[in-house]
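hey so i finally got around to running the thing on that chain from the lab meeting. sorry it took forever, my laptop kept dying and i had to restart like 3 times. anyway pasting the input first so we r on the same page abt which one it is
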Amino acid sequence: MIEAKQIHKSYGSLHVLKGVDLKIDKGEIVSIVGKSGAGKSTLLHILGTLDTADTGQLIINEEETSQMGARQLANFRNTNIGFIFQFHHLLPEFTALENVCIPAYIQNRTQGVTERAKELLEYLGIGERLSHKPGQLSGGEQQRVAVARALMNQPAVVFADEPSGNLDSASSQELHQMLFRLRDDFKQTFVIVTHNEALAEMSDRTLTMVDGRLEG
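ok and heres what got predicted. didnt touch it at all, straight out
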């Protein structure tokens, strides 16, 4: 599903990633842990094609992304990759249902979009909150909407950056269980940067970022 080879990234004189190699199979949940500043989020952004490596090769779903132009990469990302962030990033003026539909609308798709969004929200346990805007939802509910949005285009992989970092303990546990249910039911692949030890221990593999390199 994903293969990264000798990924290097620097910002000025700061060498953040120092030759990262990584392989991830379909249906895996892989957690990346490590101290703040070790390069975890930088790696996640490069794997998710939000940023580019200085050198190295990145293959996702059998496609070489490092050879793509900006427009082609944006289309590839919207079709193949989903994202879950710590702070949800829902659009406040839109309902839960409308937020989930946005990735499909970016692809100029309309047929069956609303139906799929409803199915996702119902599967995630918030089907009764379709018409609520983010400000009317709890933190846990907002994150479920964000998960549904990430899944809207049936991505090959979902990248999550501290997905439970802004949730209370109960909501965090519910989110973790939900991610594994998605893996079990749909063989959804997840790559997760986290400081949450419980989530890391549940994962199929846990990799540790140390001084710009992956261990484990």
